[in-house]
Prior knowledge:
Blueprint: H1 2-11, E1 15-19, H2 25-31, E2 40-45, H3 49-54, H4 60-66, H5 71-85, E3 89-95, E4 109-115, E5 119-125, H6 130-149
Parallel strand pairs: 1-2, 1-3
Antiparallel strand pairs: 3-4, 4-5
Amino acid sequence: MEELAKLLIARNISIASVESFTVGNFGASLGMVPGVSKIYKGTLVCYQNEIKERLAGIDKATISKYGVVSKEVAGLMAISGQNLFDSDIAVSFTGNAGPDVMEDKEAGLVYVGIKMEQVSVYELKLEGDRATVIFQAVDFAVRKILENIK
């Protein structure tokens, strides 16, 4: 995370996140880097669907049609984050950290959305306990953002 934060600071690129199953871990990790306040706009943690609808503006019909654990919702969360925070980059996380099946989707199925000029959504099938799945998803997002801005 420190490498990402330092690069964003050096290039004056702002970032925000909209997080569900990661419960703010991306934002918390980013916030630990000294000087990050220059580029870090904030994090919206919206764990329940009602909050995704009300605060992130995700349409209830979209959630009903695709499920909250979907590429569609991840993409909309990233777009919403960029708009809400007026940031250059927004990253979103939605998925099933486990241990049980959710919406007929296995534990470890997660989606990471990254909105820069365009939105990209990545489907990951991760293994491990909840903390491991969260860590892996956050790490993946950091690596993808670094790839895109280098």
